[in-house]
Input
Amino acid sequence: MKSGIRDQAEGRLHAMKGKVKEVAGRLTDNPRLMADGRAETIAGKLQTKIGQIKLVMGR
Output
């Protein structure tokens, strides 16, 4: 599997996990869990973008 496709898949997975953590943090009124979820969501979106760039650049 190309690394760009792998990065996109892993990025989407991290973004989804982060969103779940963020919602769980809101429901339990846990600001640390919310912050961790936001950070993981952002990191996942960034990794997805990196994968897209790799595919465009042909890596």
